[in-house]
Structures are given as structure tokens and as C-alpha cells.
Amino acid sequence: MKKLLLASCIAIAAAGCVSTSMQSIGSNETNTDVVAQQSAELSIPFEKYTLDNGLTIILHQDKSDPIVAISTIVHVGSNREKPGRTGFAHFFEHMAFNDSENVPQGANRKMIEELGGTRNGGTWSDGTIYYEVVPKDAFEKLMWIDSDRLGYMIKTVNEGALEREKQVVKNEKRQRVDNRPYGHTGHVIRKNLYPEDHPYNWTVIGDLEDLQAATLEDVKEFYKQYYGPSNATVVIAGDIDIAKTKELVKYWFGEISASEPVADMAPMPVSLAETKKLYHIDNFAKLPELRMTFPTVEEYSKDSYALNVLSEILSSGKRAPLYQVLVEEKQLAPSAWAYNSSQEVAGTFTLHVRAKPGIDLDAVYAGINEALARFEEKGFSDKDLDIIKAKLETKFYNGISSALDKAFQLGTYEEYAGDPAFITQDIKNIKAVTKEDVMRVYSKYISKKPFIMTSFVPKGQQELIVDGSLIANVKEEQIVAGAEKNFDSDMSVAYQKTETKNDRSEPELGDLPLIKVPEVHSYQAGNGLEILNVEHRELPLVNFKLRIEGGAWLESFDKLGTASLLSQLMNEGTKNKTPEALDDEIGLLGAGINISSDGNSIYIYGNTLARNFEQTMSLVTEMLLEPRWDQKEFDRIKASRLTTIEQNYARPDTIASNVFYKQLYGTKHRAGLPTIGTKNTVASISLDDLKHFYQNAISPMNATLNVVGDISQQEIVKSTKHLAKQWQGKAIELPEFKTPAIVKKPKVFFVDVPNAKQSVIMMGKPGLNGTDPEYYPFTVAQNRLGAGGSARLFQTLRIEKGYTYGAYSYMSQRHYDTPFIARSQVRTNVTLESLEIFKDLVGNYAETFEQSDLDTTKNLLMKQKSRYFETINNVVGMLDTISEFDLPHNYIEQQQQELQSMTLQQAKAIYNKHADEQQMIYVVVGDAKTQLNRMKSLGYGDPIVLDKDGNRL
């Protein structure tokens, strides 16, 4: 692997060793003509070289959009940690977003967003990644920030930042693990599958007590050991000049001190002597869940490819044995999954079933065994393999659709496969999998082999646990008021600045990139269907979105959920094709087609290879115009929907949203009730109800087809001629609902979730219709309140206080007076304190909004538009906005002019007009035992206690 090369370069760094190779993914001079032809279709040109200090650099030029992405992969994940210091790699990722020697405090988190870019990081078992995308004029600023983080951040770390990030990471753990159903499953499986000294014995986020014990010395030791240039790869992709970029790389990254290479970890597969059955009584779960986890092999091994295919064969599609037995025949669950997860040193293969309410998991276990026995007896066909391989090509292209995607791929292959061009071999390996390979790995790793079984069941339903299971060791955190340490987020530390030959002060912006709005073509079919398209020739793909206005807006109030059930049923075969046959035809095209709905519309989304667009549209036409109306499928879907509704009672965030909208809009406005319906309304819906709704809600006169990709308007019209001819209907008038009166004084509503580790907070009031001329100006005016990580809510509640993982405000664009919302999930014992911050920041925002805030907003929003047209999905979204809200094709240019002309007085006035805090309601979902009485101190009277459906208690 590449580490051997880097070690030799570092050893003779004084001699100026630089290893350079100019390659293209999928190209090799020794390839045969056949392989070369295939490779040309998969080409991502790149240049790779190594700096004297050991840092690997990969450059990829893509001038299709005026943006640049940088991805820095550091080859250190939780697998490098030690028992007693778990979660440290992830914690360090958080620490690395603070200041460094030459980049001021807060700039890393705020500046990139304010420059019109996006940034984030991620940690997994095997690595850590930092990534950003900015308009090209901010490219050198990004180089300055990234290089300083890698080489010059450790001296600036202080106790205040350490304690703040501890609290932020703990909030993240509460949100993702402790305060959600089945959140502890990964912990239970790892602790019982891997020995205590195995690097996968703990979860990436780690144990809270380990995190709390972290010291500054631990941070510095971790940095010194793993954050050297020899253990990292930097990928720069986008609208760059290669020669100039090399100069900038040498200037900003070249002076970072060299480091000792970190050896790659050798594979460490594990085995089980016997099956272990474990259970946990889950505070949040509403449904019983069973998982069976088998130890397998590391990534890129031959067996891992066959195991990936095996997972698809077992659970994907209507012919999959897990689906047939558990979902169709025994009706034990709405779905069943199988997935292989091969990582750097070991892997797992999981069978995962979340059953229907009240189902005994012994029955699920028996069903899984029956499905596996059927697979052993019947196997699978060559056609099944063909479908999987057809999907691969489309999946590959989708995976490199943006500059950042390409940076991810190049860097990942470099660090974990030893070569950024490994994608060619990766695809070959997948396509080379045979039926014999799949059956071999099934026999080797799954059939009659020991596994870890977990039964997670709701409170009071212990009888559903698989017989013979032992209680799992799960530690539930106790949230205690005042237990968290106070910290000073503005604390600074004294240190001697590292001497550098190059000036490391903040560089100037480059030339402002020119933003070119793509040309939009429009066409009106004879049946009234509107077609909008943009040619996007970068990849041989086409994405489309057919939107039919109406959706849940057209439902009768005693049949809420009809549109959602209809859209789901329309995915399940056609008049002349069984669900299985339809799945096969879509799969053989390497396409994806999905019908769904929301409060305003029914949608048909599609993604396909350009050469298969006409065949894909033929299937869309059949799905749309010839539903199967299968009673058996309807019964299954309806049962699944009722299960989902039940499951939502375990999700505090969903509870908060449903309750908030009900209190704001009431029960006579469609927005006040769940889009997917309620238990009572869904239970009352029949197949005839769906047929009636279909006849009255599906019309081309209310529809627009948005198409973007490697295709011309002429080809689109040709491919949709049968749809335009066969689909007929009259325009459907959409009902209007009167927005309820705004409250005269704030109210606080509270929903109890006993023992919740976090409280969900939502506040807001009815706002603006998406067609209102003041909608866009309002989004501009409120931007610095909560539109992203650089805004006030996030900066105060997360960065300054450490109360939350994130906090935001927004107003969605819809065809009714959608609410202005501010929301967050905060640590339980600071619920009142967080509410007071919301009250202050939202209520006093206009008074404290200054010209500098408006200037920042203008700069941010202007530059963000440079990314609007990067991928075909972005452009499909733009077309959908144009058609849905009847906007001119150049509405983005008009918004730019409106943005530039906005004054401070106008911004303040429009915010005050539509975001008066004294007209807002507050909804809190949390632990009533410890927090309910505290709500009185907010000053808005006694909180009104509601159940999880939003009814007063």
C-alpha cells in the first residue's frame, strides 16, 4: 500500500523526494483494448504526488462549475483507540474545528459558511474526514484553514474548548443513541462480538465516562501520534488550475512538519464459538426488533464482494426470501433487511427485522430460518445477478456527480485500497462475483454459523424477547442538573507561535466567480403536461421528477393518509406486471423509480442511464396509468403504515413536529394533521378509497415533468409521447384552508417522554405562502438567526453554551402560510435555559441585526448560488421550484437583484412583520418529572400538557 512509498520519501526528505503520478481512474497503459474502452467510460482524471513531509496530494480538475472541494482524510478512526479512551477519534474531530495558530477562533465554523460554502467532518471506525466546498474565489482561504488545522492547531487547544466539545459530543450521543429507539444496539453487538482488546469492541462515539475523562494531554498525544502528514491524504477537486494549485499546496501545506508514518492495521477477523442471545428493554421503542450479526471479513477482500451481493439477494426485491417469508407470507414485519459491512480490519453480516406491534420475536427468528432454508434449497438466478450489476453502473455515476463526491472517492481509495485508481478494480471485482461465490460465502459465514442476536423490545413487552436471551449490559445516562462543568468558550491559551518561512495570515479572496444560470427549456404536451428540462452533459445520467399537484391536500379528513398509501401502492406492480416483474424490469435498466407523496403533491422520481431514458419512461407511464390494485399488496402496505405510525410515538422529534403543527393550525386545516394519517383514519381506508382518490386526484393538467441530464428536449418529447397521449384528465382545483388566527400571547405546550435524555424544542407562528412576494426577502432577513452553523442560534446554543448538537430556524416554501420555526434538541437539564435563549434571540433579533449582518448574508447567499447547478439533482430541484410556484426561468437572477438591493431597514421590518415572538407558541417534548414545573419560569404561564397526539390532558 501507499504507506511504504511514503515511508521511503520521509526517510530521505532532505533530498527533496517527491513521488508523482498522472493517472486516470480506469486507465492504464498495459490494459487491453477492451478494458481501455470500458475504462474510458469510468474516467476521473487525477494527479497524485507526495510532499516532502509525507502528505499525499490528489488533484482533480473539473471546470463545469465555479467551485472547489477539499477533502482531507486522516487515517485514524475509533479502531486506533484504547479501552478507557473510547470515542476519542470522533471527539478529536470536533476539537479540530476550533481555532488554530493562524486562524482565529470561530473562523473554521463560521467563515466557510459565510463565504458561501459548506463544511463538515465525519469519523467512522477506520478514519476521519474533513471536507468543504466553496466558490472558487475562496479557494485559497480554504487552503489556509485546512492546512492550519492539520499542522498548527494543537497549541491553541484550551480547557474551555475541551469542555465545550465534551458537552457537544455528549449531546450528539444523546440525540443519536440515548434518546432514540434501538440506539444502543450497536454498542450491545460490538461488546459481545469482539474481544475487549479488539479495535471494534466499542462504538465510534464511545462511552460517556471515557469522554468525560479526556484531558488536554490526551488530545495532544492523539494529535502527535496520528495527525501527521504521513497519515493523511488531501484531495482538491473542482475548478482549479493544476500548476497554480501545486504552488498553493506547497505554500500552505509544505511547511508542516514531517511525521513518522503510521502503519496500516492488519486484518483482525473474529469468530464466535457459540451463538449469543441478548435483550434490552428499550425506553423509546414501540416495536420489537431482532438482529442477527455474523462475523465476516475486511473490505476489499474477495469474499466481501460476494457478501455484498448475498445481502441484496436475501433482502432486496420481491423475490428475496426474507421478503417473501417475513413480509408477504407470514406478515410478521413490514420489511426485512440484510447488509454486509466490511471495514478495514473485520466485517459483519446482519439480518435485521423490525416486526409489527406485539409480534413475538421467536416467530421472527423462525421466519428468518425458514427464509434461509428456502435460499439454500432454491438459490437464485442469473437474472438476479444481472439486475444487481445493472444497478452498479448507475450507482457509480451517482457516486461521482459532484466535485465533493469525486474528492471522497479518490481519497478513500487512496487511503484504504492504496491507489486512487482502485475504482476500476473495485468495479471489476463486483462484476466478477459469480453464483458460486455467493453460495460459497453463504456457506462459509452464515449457514449454521454462530451469531450475535439482539432482541430490543418496548417496555412492558418482555414476553416478545427470543427465548433463552440474556440481558444486555446497557448503561442509561442519568441527566443531573448542574452536573456539567462550566466553561469559558472565549478562553485563550498562551503559547509560542510556530515559526514559518511563509506568511500564514489570511489570504485575500480571488476573483468573484461568474454564475451562469443554465438555460431552461419548456414544452407543453397536448394533454396539458408541462415539461421543463436542462441539458447537463457531464455524466451519462438523467434524473427526473414528475410532480402532480394535490397530494394529501385533496384528502377528506376522515381518510387522512390516502395519498400516501396510493403513492406507495403504485410502486407495487402494474396491471400487467407483478411487483416482482416490475422490480426486475427497473433493475435491468439500472434505473430507480419511486412514487411518493407529501402534503401538496404526488411525485414520481427517477434516475437512469441516459441511454435507457425512453424505456424508463415507458415503465413510468405504465406505473402511473395502470396501477395493479392488488388487495394483498394494499393490506400489506396499510399494515406497514400503521406500524410506522405506532413507531412515530417513539420519536421525540416526530412527536414535536406533529404536536406543533396541530396546535398552530388546528384540526380543520390540512397542515395541522399528519401527512401519513392517523391510526384511526388509516385503519378506515379501503382499496376502493384509493381508487376513488386516484380518479379524482391524478391529472396531467396539474402535472409537471422536470428532466435534467445527458438528454435533449427532442429526445424527452419523443420518450414521453405515449405518456402525453394516454394520460388525459381535467384540471383539479385545490382546496384552500383558512389559516387560524395568530395567538395574542405566547403559549407553552409540553409532551411527556419519561426519562428523555434530551428535550425537543420547537417555537413558531404561521408565516408566508411560498408564492408571496415577501417569502424570499423574509428568508434573507432571518438568515443570521438560524440558517446554518454560523448563525446565532447554533453559535449560542452549541458553540457558546454546549447545550445542543445543533439549532436552526427556517420557513419552508409551500402553497399555504407555512410556519416560521426555530428548533433544537437540548440536554434535558438545560431545557429552561435553552428556552430563554430562544426567547431572547428570536424576540430581539431585529433590534440586534446590524448592517454587518446584512452584508454577511448578502455575500453568503450570493456565493452559495455558485453551487446551485453542480449536480443534476440540484438542477431538478430548481426546475421543480420554477414549476411549482410559477416562477420565471431566471428567478434566481431576479432573487440576486432583490438581495443586492435590500436595505437594513427593509430586513428589520420584514422580520418584525412575520416573526414576532409574542405571537408564537412553544412546544417542548421531554421528561415532565424533572422539567415540567421549570417551564413556568419562562414567564408565559403554566405549560399546557398534551399527549403524544397533541390532545390536552
Automatic annotation (TrEMBL):
- Molecular function (GO) terms listed? metal ion binding
Which intervals hold domain Peptidase M16 N-terminal? 57-181, 542-666
| Domain of life assignment | Bacteria
- InterPro entries for this protein: Metalloenz_LuxS/M16, MPP/UQCRC_Complex, Pept_M16_N, Peptidase_M16_C
Residue limits of the Peptidase M16 C-terminal domain? Answer: 214-392, 684-861
Output the Pfam families linked to this UniProt entry: Peptidase_M16, Peptidase_M16_C
Q: What family is this?
A: Belongs to the peptidase M16 family.
State the protein's name: Insulinase family protein
